[in-house]
Fold this protein.
Amino acid sequence: MDPDHVPSHQQTASSVPADYEAWRKARWDEIAGPNGKAKVVANGRVTGWDAHVIPGVPGQWRITEAGALTMSAAAADSVTVNGEAVNGTAEVPSGSALEFSGGRVGFAGGAGGFYGVVVMDHEALARSGLSGIDTYPYDPAWVFEGEYRAAPEGRRIDVGRLTTPRSTEAIFAPVDLAVSINGTEYVLSVLEDMPGQRLVVFTDETNGTETPEIGRWLVLPLLAPGSTLTVDFNQATLSHHHLAPAVFTCPLSPPGNHLPMRVEAGERALVYAKN
């Protein structure tokens, strides 16, 4: 199925801006492209000096006192780092290519004692049957100008996380987003769950019926407090959690990030091919 169009939402090409169409294509590539999130079968963060085990991934991962990432595995685990088989402990520089048994591949990235490890199975997308993303029709009325406002330095907000069982984590929230909708100003907390990625996780009155109960995301740029930016709810996305709940333990909406209205814009649900 073409991810930009689903049968329930017919729009003429002239009614949809070209930059929105380009964004939709880029969004589908993010999900189903060569390194798409729908192909991720394991995902873990490694911080601190204690040994970490990433579910579904062999070996142990550790940060050295110098801040480098290492992994320890036996030869029987069939792990390679940048083409070199691991039998013992190997350093894993940021950007390293990983290979595992069963044709799984991955990469590691990070710096300063904070690393992420992602493992993909390129057959996972086909097995899932994912064929598109259902969206509301594009509506220019849901495009606003917003402003970043400074937050206390180093601010962290206690936010629920979609682990099993549910957990709470103090997530870095460097700025707030102020946006006026129908004459009312709303101030939403902006999370930086991963370095360099800013998110507004919000809920609204469509949740639980037309959109997921856990809310949706606005992915925002890295700008200084006081900067203005476009806030386009047509680009509201589903959480990665819907692709693989056990893999993507995404943050929930922070307290105060509820919009008391129906936000009929953006993504609604993943679409799967019928068997």
About this structure: The chain is about 5% helix and 40% strand. The radius of gyration is 20 Å. The helical segments are 18-32, 124-128.
